[in-house]
Amino acid sequence: MERLRATPQSYAKKAEWIETAMAEGAHNQPPKGAHFTQERWDRAVDIGLLVNMGPETTGQSVADLFHVGKQEIWRINKNFLTYLHRNCSQEIRSRFPLEAMPLDKPLPQILKDKRSLTRRGLLVRIKEELNNGVRNVRKIAENLGVSVSAVSSERQILKEQSINLPYVFNNYRKNDYEIKKAIEKGDIVKLRRKLKSVPPAYVHSRLQKYDNRQPIFITVGKLVRDLGLGKGNRKQLIKVIEFADIPIRRIALNMVKHREKNYRQAYWIIYAAHTSWIRRLVEKTDLLSVSEQAEIHR
Questions:
Q1: Is position 177 within any domain?
Q2: Global pTM?
Q3: Within a domain: residue 235?
Q4: Which domain holds residue 65?
Q5: Using alpha carbons only, how large is the chain's radius of gyration in Å?
């Protein structure tokens, strides 16, 4: 069912519903069928009450209080409202249908006015920076004392005025772009440098498909399985890769527990684009003899 448009009356109705549900005790127990522990549900209740009932609270202030992102706060709040409604009696659910409830907290009108005024002022200052020849978004943000996202948020308005604001890559997208270009050019030196410098979290995110794109990296363990080799050939394959001067890196990704102690689980990582190169190398050579040569050259 399509939700009703949020109005001041609907927010007042939501507050009345939450108070009624709390009086009934709908907030005391996690909803049945939902994957909530009591601790997680109590946390969701605390966040939901602050967001919806707290005086002069904003998503950001609640996010700072619980040390999470603002989007995470809105997600938790939506779950809180949905499952609180499920916990209510049939009478209360009929009296306060969820479809009529806005799932976010309205901004006070004075804050809306301030934000609107600030946005217009920011737009003028961005235009001034562009007219002064500053084309780098990060530099514009630094000059104006605002965040990069605040500057980028004005891109559509500027575009409607036939003013192009350059795009800025986040670190992950920048790495994606630079690695892609280096692979296309066959620049092994740059690929080796990138593989050594990128953070483990980036490597982990690019070990699987992302945004419908193929993985950038692959573990040597997976490569061993893809080549139909035994586990005992892994060390030999690593020596062959190093001997062939193919970029490779040992990196710790996951925490594993062994005998009551936590250890970092390490993997050998290569570029997925180099798997066919390694496959041809393995097919044309004796894996054991090449690994022995690699050991001699050490």
A1: no
A2: 0.43
A3: yes
A4: 8-100
A5: 28
* Residue indicated by tokens 């001699």: 296
CA 176, CA 223: separation in Å to the nearest integer?
21
For 76-105, the pLDDT digits (tens) are: 888 888 889 988 999 998 888 888 777 765
288 falls within a domain: yes
Residue-wise pLDDT for 108-128, tens only, equals 554 444 444 455 577 788 888
| Judgement on whether residues 58 and 145 belong to the same structural domain of the protein | no
Tell me if 38 is assigned to some domain: yes
